[in-house]
Design brief:
The chain is of the alpha+beta class. It folds into two domains: 113 residues, no CATH class; 70 residues. It has four helices and nine strands. Strands 1-2-3-4-5 form a five-stranded antiparallel sheet. Strands 8-7-6-9 form a four-stranded mixed sheet. Helix 1 runs antiparallel to helix 3 and helix 2 packs across helix 3. The chain is elongated and about 60 Å long. It starts with a strand and ends with a strand.
Length: 207
């Protein structure tokens, strides 16, 4: 993962952080293949048709076996359609990770954070008064990720940059979670230098 790009324009320091990593690029290509498979097999159209017919009464002249087969086929089409919808939403998430960036404008009085160009509900923009900033710090968390090849899972650490406001323990996130600590750490170092505020050395464990 690339380091953040830091630029200075007058009294404003601009920091740009890319969300992408090789994992999301590879996974995004895999999801595109899966979506193509579902679309080429007509599962989305079959799911819509099955949804319209799922509550319809079977033909009175049809046998029990034929009716059971028809109902089973409809539910299978619905199931495959729902899997396809899941792939669409997951592909959007991967697409956000591939193309989005976090842009931070560190001005004299205001710290502005924006994420985009694609909207993602878990990451929202912020405007923070510099006077309310106490320090900067990094949070970490661990996720369990399965390995398809070996059958053994592994613990993957994630990191993000945060700012502590006032004398309270409240932390406000500045970046999304990264699998590499470099983007978060470099962002925090640039902000700590810009405002001459302390950079906390202890990682905050997020649950």
């Amino acid at each position: 993962m690339k380091e953040p790009v830091v630029r200075s324009q007058g009294d404003v320091v601009s920091i740009e952080v890319r969300w992408s990593s090789f994992f999301y690029i590879a996974f995004g290509l895999l999801m595109l293949v899966a979506l193509y498979f579902f679309a080429s097999r007509g599962y989305f159209g079959k799911a819509l048709a099955a949804l319209g017919l799922s509550l319809a009464s079977p033909s009175p002249g049809a046998g029990v076996a034929a009716r059971d087969l028809a109902v089973g086929s409809r539910f299978l089409d619905l199931f495959m359609g729902f899997i396809g919808v899941f792939f669409i939403f997951f592909e959007y998430y991967v697409l956000c990770r591939m193309v989005n960036r976090t842009r931070i404008q560190a001005g004299a009085e205001t710290l502005t954070v924006r994420h985009g160009p694609l909207p993602w509900p878990l990451e929202r923009g912020r405007r923070i008064s510099v006077a309310s900033i106490k320090s900067f710090g990094m949070a970490s968390r661990t996720e369990r990720r399965s390995a398809f090849a070996s059958g053994r899972g592994s613990n993957i650490p994630f990191f993000r940059a945060e700012v502590r406001l006032g004398d309270s323990a409240k932390r406000v996130p500045l970046t999304p979670w990264f699998e590499d600590e470099i983007p978060a750490r470099k962002t925090l170092e640039a902000l700590s230098k810009r405002y001459a505020l302390p950079l906390e050395t202890n990682l905050r464990k997020d649950r």
